[in-house]
Automatic annotation (TrEMBL):
Annotated protein name in UniProt: Aminotransferase
Gene3D superfamilies: Aspartate Aminotransferase, domain 1, Type I PLP-dependent aspartate aminotransferase-like (Major domain)
Organism for this UniProt entry: Pelolinea submarina
Species lineage: Bacteria, Bacillati, Chloroflexota, Anaerolineae, Anaerolineales
Record's keyword terms, sorted: Aminotransferase, Pyridoxal phosphate, Transferase
Cofactor: pyridoxal 5'-phosphate
EC number in record: 2.6.1.-
SUPFAM superfamilies in the cross-refs: PLP-dependent transferases
GO-annotated molecular function: pyridoxal phosphate binding; transaminase activity
Length: 396
């Protein structure tokens, strides 16, 4: 019998972060003197541009160290509205949040009632499903298969629909697959959502990280804006993950609820961070730096593909990502689970990766490898993965 009063049962439906097991094991190996290359991070290896740091410091020194406006500074909301793919009213349709994760949380809080169902592609970033469960919603997984470029077929969305379904979540460029849908796909999906009166929550935090055409935002279809909710942040674009600043753009009724959710959970985003964000979004030189970071990831993506071409019969199948900063490597040919692959690669080759199943059952046999790491680590790490796979096949 427990010696404390009952806890929130919803937490039994979500596990600890699956990357923690890998991180703990990496730390233990490092402590034992082993060299380990970690290719697990979802965090840019670039530093936040100095000018953004200076803008934050100036704001602190000028006294912006107290509570700020809970919706966000008007000039910051204006700067956010100015960069969106469609007109949004900065007064009533934008909320500044504590990073993309908090934007997503306030979006779900605003629309979900207990027992509502939300459709989420499998594989997807784990928080998309976990947050729904924490808010007493039900997750319906929609397979996003490799042979379909990791985009769920429209038929799959349709088959997953139930009378309780209230929303679907999309995230392009996608974590972990790097998928970016063509405009027509997005248009058809938004039409489907409109037909069934569903919210579309579009998580666009990787919007600036693309390797071909610029991804189309879900906001680009004015006829659908009444059921679109945009989640975004400055984390990945400006290497500002630790600053914790993002935003929600949505119809006024959603923002009104989200504002209440935000006021009652974080009060406001720190005002000096809001000032730094306004600077990041409006200073032209910062857009140049963001583009340079994108070029850095593109260079590493090419590096990975070049190395891969040196291993013509590899058991690892590699599709170049169209966006974000991950490779979702297909090792299904080895007939091992994703956990086994990660454990063995760590123990035998000293490479830390995230098991594909951290993103849903469809990630079985896959691993996520980040390219948000130095060129040297990406090269050494990826070669080690290919050599290990070769050794497995030859030893089998
Ligand atoms: C798909 C996706 N959405 C949202 C986030 C959260 O980003 P933020 O730092 O803005 O909270 C992440 C972070 O890895 C992510 O991968």
């Amino acid at each position: 019998m427990s010696n404390h009063p009952p806890l929130n049962q919803q937490f039994t439906y979500i596990g600890q972060s699956p990357t923690i097991a890998v991180s703990d094991r990496m730390l233990a190996l490092k402590a034992a003197g082993r060299t380990v290359i970690s290719l697990t991070a979802g965090d840019p290896d670039f530093s936040t541009p100095n000018e953004i740091i200076a803008a934050g410091m100036r704001a602190m020194q000028s006294g912006l160290t107290h509570y700020g406006p809970s919706r966000g500074f008007p000039h910051l909301r204006k700067a956010i509205a100015a960069k969106l793919a469609a007109p949004y009213d900065p007064e009533s349709e934008i909320l500044v949040t504590h990073g993309g994760v908090h934007a997503y949380y306030t979006a779900l809080q605003s629309i979900l009632n207990p027992g509502d169902a939300v459709m989420i592609p499998d594989p997807s970033w784990g928080t998309h499903a976990n947050m729904v469960r924490l808010l007493r919603g039900n997750v319906i997984s929609v397979p996003a298969l490799p042979e379909d470029g990791f985009l769920p077929k429209l038929q799959a969305w349709n088959s997953a629909l139930t009378p309780q379904t209230r929303a679907l979540v999309i995230n392009y460029p996608a974590n972990p697959t790097g998928a970016v849908p063509p405009r027509d796909y997005l248009k058809a999906l938004l039409e489907f959502a409109a037909q069934h009166d569903l919210w579309v929550i579009s998580d666009e935090v990787y919007e600036n990280l693309y390797f071909a055409e610029k991804p189309v935002s879900a906001a680009s279809f004015p006829e659908h804006r009444s059921h679109v909710i945009l989640v975004n942040s400055l984390s990945k674009t400006y290497a500002m993950t630790g600053w914790r600043i993002g935003y929600l753009a949505a119809p006024e009724a959603v923002i009104e609820n989200a504002l209440k959710a935000s006021q009652n959970s974080i009060t406001c985003v720190a005002p000096f961070i809001q000032e730094a964000a306004a600077f990041a979004l409006t200073d032209e030189a910062m857009q140049v730096q963001a583009a340079e970071m994108r070029a850095g990831y593109a260079r590493r993506r090419d590096l990975v593909m070049r190395i891969y071409s040196e291993y013509p019969d590899s058991a690892v199948a590699v599709a170049p990502p169209q966006g974000a900063f991950y490779f979702f490597l297909d090792l299904r040919a080895l007939k091992l689970t994703a956990d086994e692959i990660c454990e063995q690669l760590l123990d035998q080759a000293g490479i830390g990766l995230v098991p594909g199943t951290a993103f849903g059952p469809c990630g079985q046999g896959f691993v996520r490898m980040t390219i948000a790491a130095s060129d040297e680590d990406v090269e050494k790490g990826f070669r080690a993965i290919l050599d290990w796979a070769k050794m497995k096949v030859e030893g089998a």
